[in-house]
Design goal:
The complex is a heterodimer of chains A (117) and B (408).
Chain A lengths: L7 E4 L2 E5 L10 H12 L4 E5 L8 H16 L3 E5 L3 H10 L1 H4 L2 E2 L2 H10 L2
Parallel strand pairs in A: 2-3, 3-4, 4-5
Antiparallel strand pairs in A: 1-2
Helix pairs in contact in A: 1-2
Chain B lengths: L7 H19 L4 H15 L5 E7 L4 E8 L13 H10 L3 E2 L7 H13 L4 E7 L2 E8 L10 H25 L5 H27 L8 H15 L4 H13 L9 H4 L7 H8 L1 H9 L9 H6 L21 H15 L11 H10 L7 H17 L15 H8 L6
Antiparallel strand pairs in B: 1-2, 1-5, 3-4, 4-5
Helix pairs in contact in B: 1-2, 1-5, 2-5, 5-6, 7-8, 7-13, 15-16
The chains are: A alpha/beta (117), B alpha+beta (408).
The complex binds fe (ii) ion (FE2).
């Protein structure tokens, strides 16, 4: 079952997740569960949008790395969008920006995902 | 081996995590969720995708998993090490790099294949006093970078938090009330937190070739002053930490501006004057056990007559901690050597402070500061101000300075 408390939407066969600030708490694991549920339904394309995330903390990083590993395991694709400068810096530090394309807006990320189809 | 210092971003990220970890461990949440969050914080700090925490059962002499992330099928797994190995690891008490060349690895070989299954790269045994509590392992960093000495230091601090929490939990389970013992252990943990902040203060002071240890002295002076003012122990700790970090905003100011001995241009002055606000912005994002730290940093260059910066606050509008910091900051600047002049004597500095009371400084605070120095001279036990002055102070001279004090 797909979690009702997580803010996400489907555009074609792309799932857009809004990380907001709950990615920084243990409830952020629900994001991972949403990904699991979609991966099980053979949906492999994800955009995670951070425009509602003020500053990502270590729990958030840990949850994100978990999500990325899961998507990669299934040979899926994930793009990030809407990063604030402070989060961009943190993603550089973690090395995430080397692995995951970072787009300015959710729309850009979705379009890029579509054009890559 | 070439080692990069951690970047400011990494340092702040980690400092913030330490604050959150402390808060989590002291929270009334149930043990399992505390330990799980703690594991996530450790993994997030080292960008690890696999991690596991074991608890040690001293009766059965086995390790059993309490929480893991990124690893499948942990249920039912137990691990065993010889008494000799356990004794050796308790004595070692440092993170162990499984890809390293430590002689300790030979003790680890019986469980090495098991740990390889969890992708373990670094293992830390969780120890409280001389007691083995458990173990923690994480895999390679997601970033592909190696583990540095700084990482090991940070991991040690985080593991101490974890050990404390696990230990506390066992004590609770056994319904033992070893309150004092735990208090002592927590004291060690607090020390580790300060050590981290101290090393950061050193990085701030290193920016200015003439202000070596300035932040440490400001911190020491502030806490001595706060103690004299009768502050609660907890608040004294807060201003101690604030003193160490008050100039953190200078990290964003160009080194050549800070070290310039000729007069600064308008632009350069603007840059320099931005440091309290930059500091505030950095520190207000960090979760400290003391809420007042960001504002003390922001307002440490205010003057009581309203001619300071950045907010042009007047006397009582300026947070008391910032007024104290402003005074001891100026005092330290006067009593240490600078590129353009040598240090002034204690009496000269105090007279200068007195001359600027009610303009730049708070009169009551200046008076209390001298009283604190006077006490140190009289009692000589645990001095924290006169220790840094490198001159012999005479009590009658101090009494004279306390006379004819400007009225508030
Ligand atoms: Fe300053």
């Amino acid at each position: 079952m797909i979690n009702q408390h997580i803010n996400y939407k489907e555009i074609d066969n792309i799932v857009v997740l809004h990380a907001e600030n709950y990615i920084n708490k243990m409830e952020g694991e629900n994001l991972e569960k949403v990904c699991d549920a979609f991966l099980a339904k053979r949906t492999y394309k994800f955009v995670i949008d951070f425009s509602g995330t003020d500053i990502i903390n270590s729990i958030g990083i840990s949850i994100l790395i978990g999500i990325i590993e899961k998507i990669k395991e299934k040979k899926g694709l994930v793009l990030f969008s809407g990063l604030k400068k402070v989060n961009h810096d943190i993603f550089d530090m973690v090395g995430l920006s080397k692995h995951i394309p970072l787009l300015k807006t959710e729309e850009e990320a979705v379009n890029r995902m579509k054009s890559g189809q | 081996m070439m080692e990069k210092d951690p970047t400011v971003e990494r340092f702040l990220f980690n400092l913030n995590t330490l604050g959150e970890l402390g808060e989590e461990i002291c929270s009334p949440k149930d043990f399992n969720s505390v330990i799980k969050s703690a594991l996530y914080m450790v993994m997030g700090s080292f960008f690890a995708s696999k991690g596991i925490i074991f608890k040690y059962d001293p009766l059965q002499k086995i390790f059993f998993p309490v929480v893991s992330k990124g690893i499948d099928n942990m249920a039912g797994i137990t691990l065993r090490l010889s008494d000799e190995a356990i004794g050796a690891f308790v004595g070692y008490n440092k993170p162990l790099d499984l890809k390293g060349s430590s002689p300790m690895l030979s003790y680890f070989s019986p469980v090495r294949t098991e740990f390889a299954k969890f992708g373990a790269r670094i293992v830390v045994f969780l120890i409280v006093g001389n007691e083995l509590i458990g173990a923690l392992s994480i895999n390679d960093k997601f970033s592909g970078e190696g583990y540095t000495d700084y990482d090991f230091q940070l991991l040690s601090i985080m593991s101490q938090h974890l050990s404390y929490s696990l230990h506390n939990h066992s004590l609770l389970v056994k319904l033992m009330h070893k309150y004092t013992e735990n208090k002592e252990l927590y004291e060690n943990l607090r020390q580790a937190y300060y050590n981290t902040i101290h090393s950061f203060a050193a990085a701030i002071d290193a920016k200015d070739s003439y202000t070596k240890d300035h932040s440490h002295r400001v911190s020491a002076y502030c806490s001595a002053l706060a103690r004299e003012m009768g502050w609660a122990e907890e608040d004294i700790e807060g201003i101690r930490v604030a003193g160490l970090l008050h100039d953190i905003g200078k990290l964003a100011v160009d080194k050549t501006i800070i070290n310039k001995s000729s007069p600064l241009t308008k632009f350069e002055l603007g840059e320099l004057y931005s440091h309290p606000v930059v500091g505030y912005e950095i520190l207000s994002k960090i979760k400290f056990p003391w809420e007042s730290i960001p504002m003390m940093t922001r307002n440490h260059h205010e003057k009581v007559d309203g001619n300071g910066y950045p907010d042009k606050l007047k006397k009582s509008e300026i947070p008391i901690g910032a007024r104290m910091m402003s005074l001891v900051d100026a005092f330290d600047a006067m009593t240490t050597n600078r590129p353009y002049r040598s240090r002034r004597s204690f009496a000269e500095a105090i007279n200068e402070l007195k001359n600027h009371c009610n303009e730049q400084f708070d009169t009551d605070i200046a008076h209390t500061f001298i009283t604190a120095v006077r006490k140190e001279v009289l009692e000589l036990n645990s001095p924290s101000i006169i220790l840094h002055l490198h001159e012999l102070l005479d009590i009658t001279a101090i009494d004279k300075l306390l006379e004819h004090f400007p009225k508030t």
